[in-house]
Design goal:
The complex is a heterodimer of chains A (about 100) and B (about 150). Chain A has about 100 residues and is mostly beta strands. Chain A is about 0% helix and about 55% strand. Chain A has one domain (about 5-100): Immunoglobulin-like, CATH 2.60.40. Classes of the chains: A mainly beta (about 100), B alpha+beta (about 150).
């Protein structure tokens, strides 16, 4: 089960992507009940590939909200395979692929 | 070929393979540490784009709420009709102002929507890189409850 939810819909040659990535996005500025700093844990890199070609990429900082939402649009068609991947500051990775509808 | 020679050839082939496989990965791991850890918007842009001269432009469309009741989740939308290579979002009063940067290959629309945190009422600036120049749009968002915890 992937923790990335993606909706990709094509209209007039443009694919509209809406995605939600489950992630705590800890800033490293918060403290727990005992006053200890909660270490930063956040997504740093996002890459979107359509049939293996990069169509969108980006970097997040700690000011992106918990469970990041990301939406963008690119040229594509129905049936294309869209893969969205992220890497966080602790080296964890997650990836999900959907068919463009 | 003696054993030593064979090993040498193997070693060379190995490093060539590493170079081939390793390079694209290096190119992807591009989180710009100096830019994202910068304490001012100007330093962040310097670190990200190698320059921080910006021009305000009506062609940069920034959508953000006038008032954010919850600073933890503030929807931000940046769009432009310009031929853009990159989009960045700055939140002036956050400890690290650069919230995100996005690269747009040819065929990708100059449009990004996401949700950000802000600790207090602050200016949000959308930066669009087009033709090697930086264009901006700025809007103040009033925050009633800060979103950075503490």
């Amino acid at each position: 089960m992937t923790t990335i939810r993606i909706k990709a819909k094509e209209r007039a040659g443009i694919v509209d992507v809406k995605s939600l990535m489950k992630h705590p996005m800890e800033t490293g500025l918060r403290k727990d009940k005992d006053g200890n700093i909660i270490p930063p844990h956040f997504i740093q890199e996002i890459v979107a590939e359509n049939n293996g070609a990069v169509v969108f990429s980006g970097s997040f900082n700690t000011s992106i909200s918990k469970d990041p939402y990301l939406s963008f649009q690119y040229s594509g068609k129905k049936g294309d395979k869209l893969t969205l991947s992220w890497t966080d500051n602790q080296g964890q990775k997650e990836s999900s692929t959907v068919d463009v509808g | 070929m003696d054993r030593r020679g064979a090993l040498k050839v193997l070693g060379l082939a190995g490093s060539a393979l590493t170079a081939l496989v390793g390079l694209p990965k290096l190119a992807m791991a591009s989180w710009a540490k100096t830019a994202f850890e910068a304490r001012s918007g100007a330093d962040a842009l310097q670190g990200l784009y190698g320059g921080n001269a910006t021009t305000p432009s009506d062609a940069v469309k920034l959508k953000a709420p006038d008032i954010a009741e919850n600073g933890a989740v503030v929807p931000i939308e940046v769009e432009t009709d310009m031929d853009a290579e990159s989009i960045a979002i700055l939140i002036e009063k956050n400890p690290s102002p650069l919230a995100g940067s996005f690269d747009l290959p040819a065929g990708t629309k100059a449009l990004v929507k996401t949700r950000v945190r802000m600790g207090e009422t602050t200016n949000v600036t959308a930066v669009v890189k087009s033709g090697g120049k930086l264009y901006t749009a700025t809007k103040e968002v009033k925050v009633t409850i800060g979103g950075c915890g503490g």
